[in-house]
Specification:
Number of strands: 7
Shape: globular
Helix content: 25-40%
Largest sheet: 5 strands, mixed
Distance between the termini: 37 Å
Radius of gyration: 15 Å
Number of helices: 4
Oligomer: single chain
Strand order of the largest sheet: 3-4-5-6-7
Length: about 160
Amino acid sequence: MARREGWALVPYKDGDVLIVRVDPFDRVTGPLFPYMIKRMMDFARIHIPEKNPEAQVRDHAMRACAGDPKFLLLAFLAPDGRLIGHATSLIQEDYGTKWLFVTQCKLDEPGGDVMDRAIQLGKDFARKHGAVGIDMLTKRSDGAWARAYGFKTMRHL
């Protein structure tokens, strides 16, 4: 497991993709925020156009700016500092049950074990908030997500 040092997660070894929790008001991670907004909007327009992409991104940006403790905004940074991916997640609750809902997840290029580490971070975040599971919406590769990370397909429309 990567160890935490201040604002970032230190990768396992040199050359690993760095996973960073982005805070718009943090002096180190804050400058990433406008790029994260653009990535989130591009993702939403391509992958979930029927769900009002602008409304989703405005909601996520508002949560990030308000410091919502139940919102997780992660940036994936290549060893050379390029932003090559992101993930957004929310703690959801219904009828006394909590779960982590991964609203967006995208990696632009191969990143070794970055997805394994990101999912582990999501699990840790979910447990910290008393969540009992993780849900993710995907329109493609559901079989690959199931094989790699144990997700189960709930429904196809």
